[in-house]
Amino acid sequence: MTAAFHARYARPSPKSPAPRLPPTSSPALQPSLHARTPISKPQTADAGTQYTPEGYPPTANTLAGSKRRGSSPPAPSMTPRPETNLPERPVHSATPDMSAQGVVAASQNASPSLSKKPRTQPDPNVKIMPLKYETCDPKDLGYLISNMLMELIRLNDKLPLNGRLTRFHSRAPPGISCHDYLQRLIQHATLSPPILLSIVYYIDRLCSLYPSFTISSLTVHRFLITAATVAAKGLSDSFWTNPTYARIGGISVSELATLEMEFLEKVQWRIVPKPEVLVDYYVSLVQRNEGYQLEAATESDPT
Predict the structure, then answer these.
(1) Binning pLDDT at 50, 70 and 90, where does residue 25 land?
(2) Which of 33, 116, 187, 210 is the most buried (most CB within 10 A)?
């Protein structure tokens, strides 16, 4: 055993030939009994069938599926959803032909990309006024009143005077327009909406009780400063003094006092109108101007 050990594991000398090891047979590799499972590519659905809006056919958008290779698996067929009776959305429009049935029929005849229901948008050229005149902008209300005054001036300037002059008549029309003069009073005399509507009320009352008075280019300016002074004193808890109103109106203090007394006598000292009267004047002013419109009433607002 010792000789065999040394003969097998001894270090060979340079003179002795290298020992040869007997060849050993390596065990043969046996094939695996388990069959290899083929790697399958993930199934991807067509991009056009990922989302289908209601009312569109399943094949409404097939651009993504047409770019795929021909060896890709076909897209799974999708069964159309059963149609459900959804409530129709009301279409707010002033024209009678824009009803709910008309919009639905038009959308069915149009192409799928243009079959959305049109949305009604408010006219940007129309100014929406609040339902309550107390919350409206005095400048907007002054614009409505000045338009009404200009209509009266155009009509009454055509009539002859026939010698019927009042304290409100001037020798010549002032250089400032009716609109600019009223806006000046609103800004510097801080006229509120009730005061402005009371001025309109005074026009009807003064014309009915004082036949010689008419709104014209000769009387409108003196009437406005006088009516604004009387209405502010009768309706407001705080108001300016006569020198302030006279300076804003461009007349003297004595002339304003004379016009104020003349005005109170002609209207019989009844200068406080009823609230419902002011509401009627406000609605009438808004309705007669095409560029203005009252806002829609809600359920909480009284009708």
Answers:
(1) low
(2) 210
